Structures are given as C-alpha cells and as structure tokens.
Amino acid sequence: MSATSVTGTSHERHGRYPQALTVEDFRRNLAAVQARIDAACRRVGRDPAGVRLLPVSKTKPEASLRLAHAAGCRLLGENKVQEAHHKWEAMQDLGDLRWSVIGHLQTNKAKLVARFASEFQALDSLRLAETLDRRLQLEGRTLDVFVQVNTSEEASKYGLAPDDVAAFIRELPRFPALRVRGLMTLALFSDDTERVRACFVRLRGLRDRLRQDAPDGIGLEELSMGMSGDFEIAIEEGATVVRVGQAIFGARDTPDSHYWPDAGDAVSAP
Ligand SMILES: *Cc1c(COP(=O)(O)O)cnc(C)c1O
Fold first, then answer.
1. How far is residue 202 from each of residues 31, 45, 185, 195, 224, measured CA to CA in Å?
2. Residue 244's beta-bridge partner residues?
3. Which of 26, 34, 93, 171 could serve as 71's disulfide partner, Cβ 3.0–4.6 Å?
4. Domain Alanine racemase N-terminal: where (predicted)?
C-alpha cells in the first residue's frame, strides 16, 4: 500500500478548519469526513463498514456537542476525564449520548471513568487496569478498552513501548470488567508522511502478531489510529477506529502542544 499511495498528512492545516456553528455545519462536516473515509477504503479495497468514526469533542462547549448530537453523533471522544465527566453530567437529558475517554488517565481518576464512560482508549498500566476493574465492579459496569502503544517512541507520548505490549496483554484476563478491544496509537506529528505511516504500520504489525496467541476473551480486532490530519493514511494501513475532532467541530483554540508537549516541534521541523 505504502508504495502506491500519495495520501499526505495535513497537520499544518489545523488552523484552517472552520468552526461548526449549526446542525447543518455538523451534518456537512460529518458527511465530508465520511466521504474521505470511504475514498480511503476504496483505495485499498476495504469495506467502509469496517471503519468507525469517533468524533472528538474535547475543548468544545456543551452547545457545540448538542449540535453534534442533533446531527447524529451518539458517541463522543474526550481527552481529559474531568472535562468529559462534567459534560456527561450536563447532558444527561440526551439519554443516548455515550462517552469515549481517549487520553491518558491518572489512577486516582479511574473511579470517574468507571462511573460514566463506555470506552477507554488509553490503557497503559496494570495498576490502572486493576483500579478500573475494581471500580467498574463496584458500579456493576463494564468498559471497552484499548491498549495505548507509543509507536513513535517520543518521550512525550503516553503508551506502552511496543516490546512491552505482549506481556501486558497476557495479564489482562485478570480484569473481567475490562473488555479488551484492541490497540490505540497517536502517530508522530509530522508532515513527513512516510514517518507517520510507519507508526500505523507498526501498530498493525504488532496487533497481527499478538492476535495469534491472544489469551481467551481478549479481543484484538480493533486498531484505533488516525486523527484529522492523518486518518486517511491510518485507514490505508488498517485502522478500524479513527478519532476525528477538528475536521468535524472546527479548529481548537488550544494548540496540540497543550496535549502533547513536543507536538509543535515535530510539525514545524524542516
Ligand atoms: C484530540 C485528539 C484526537 C483528535 O485530534 P483532531 O486533530 O482534532 O482530529 C485524536 N486522538 C486523541 C488521543 C486526541 O487527544
């Protein structure tokens, strides 16, 4: 796939995503992203039904999330658990809105996630797995989880080193309230498409190897990879979940470096 594809990254275009201000804006943006997903699937002979779009609403106000809901979004991704929890509390009236926590979680905030999240995509320690499992059992809930892998090996990115994932996965059957779905990664923030693609290729290779002798009950079907600037490349390399914020909601005021300390450097590097 890599050799024939010309799909590029577009991190440099983040500032150009216009704000979505009406339900119509959300419908149009969702349709445009879905069309790009479909096209990326066609390029590599995949069925678009095998790619789930997770809209990411972090930093956006409640009013904006309500418009997204009105446009059909039923699962929203949030990077920070307290922000997600506040939004969950404020939007209880919607009834059918579910939450995916996609950012690093400190163990002392596991009880919040256990209370309201449907999905958690940044599992990266056994201590966190243990605390989440205990809290979930107290709540009588289960949680879909993705193991976060640091495929770019940047010190600032969270996630397990690729070499540590196999041993980590072997421990997970101890935590029955965690439903392990697959792996998640953030690629390098770079305009160098091939280095970005290499992160996705790495996650897929890891998943394919681990799947061969995954413990009973541990599903490793899912690959959560790709965001506004690089989701088409991720799909070409096997993504089953793409986490897209700005291309749906509009540009964020907060720079990416607020979330990933060296992101700005990687993007502006020559
Ligand atoms: C913010 C975020 C995204 C989405 O990024 P966009 O550039 O808004 O598409 C994806 N994944 C994670 C973990 C995030 O924190």
1. 29, 20, 10, 11, 13
2. 55
3. 26
4. 29-252
Its domain, for residue 96, covers 11-250
Is residue 260 in some structural domain? no
Question: Does ligand 1 come within 6 angstroms of the Cβ of 243?
Answer: yes
- What is the residue with the minimal CA distance to atom 12 of ligand 1? 102
Q: What CATH number does the domain containing 85 carry?
A: 3.20.20.10
pLDDT score at 156: 83
Closest protein CA for atom 6 of ligand 1: 245
Q: What is the number of domains present in the chain? A: 1
Q: Is pTM, for the whole model, over 0.85? A: yes
Mean pLDDT along residues 179-190? 96
- C-alpha 90 chain-centroid distance: 23
Residue 261 lies in a domain: no
Report the run of H or E that residue 76 belongs to, with start and end. strand 75-78
**Measured in angstroms, how far is the CA atom of residue 243 from the centroid of ligand 1?**
6
In this structure, is residue 258 part of a structural domain?
Answer: no
pLDDT over 70, % of the chain:
89
What is residue 4's predicted lDDT score, i.e. its pLDDT?
A: 40
Q: What is the pLDDT of residues 54-108, one digit of tens each?
A: 999 999 999 999 999 999 999 999 999 999 999 999 999 999 999 999 999 999 9
